[in-house]
Amino acid sequence: MLFIRDIGLTAMLKSVSEEIRNCYKHAEACARQAAEETDPKLREDLLGLKTAWLKLAQLRETDLSDRIRQRAYEIWIASGYRSDEAEQHWLAAEREILSALQSTRSSVDFRPAVKREAEEDWGR
User: Which residue ranges make up each domain of the chain?
Assistant: First the structure.
């Protein structure tokens, strides 16, 4: 049974990692477009988007590890400060945080409102 849970955890980690990689890819695409852009205002906007994508990726990385660390600490305290189970505490915290993240992500529609409305108008 532990093996099945580990597979689910691995899938969630891959999903979060892919999300972070996509942020970096979007930042790179914005930088390329900005380098090719002749309109100074549009170039500035693209560079602003690049910066925003980079910040989002860094926040996702930091937020995830901080949340896991905090939860592992809470589990450690609840276990009576048993340090010989640190790895189990970390893995339990990872499972909890990633499961919560996965369930939140699946229930939220991140598409821009304009795109959602257009798709709804076309019956998608």
Answer: 2-121
The token pair that represents 28 in the structure block = 């790179």
Element (H, E) at 45: helix 40-78
CA distance 119 to 33: 27
d(CA 44, CA 39): 9
Rg, Å, the chain Cα set = 20
Which residue reads 């409305």 in tokens? Answer: 117
pLDDT recorded at residue 97: 85
Please give the C-alpha separations between residue 12 and each of 2, 16, 38, 57, in angstroms, as whole numbers: 15, 6, 41, 17
Cβ-based neighbour number of residue 93 at 10 Å = 20
- Please say whether the dihedral angle defined by the alpha carbons of residues 5, 90, 11 and 116, taken in this order, is positive or negative: positive
| Secondary structure of residue 7 in the 3-state scheme | helix
Taking the whole predicted model, whether its pTM rises above 0.70 is answered as no
Q: Give the tokens for residue 103.
A: 């369930």
At 62-91, the pLDDT tens digits run: 888 888 899 999 999 999 988 889 999 999
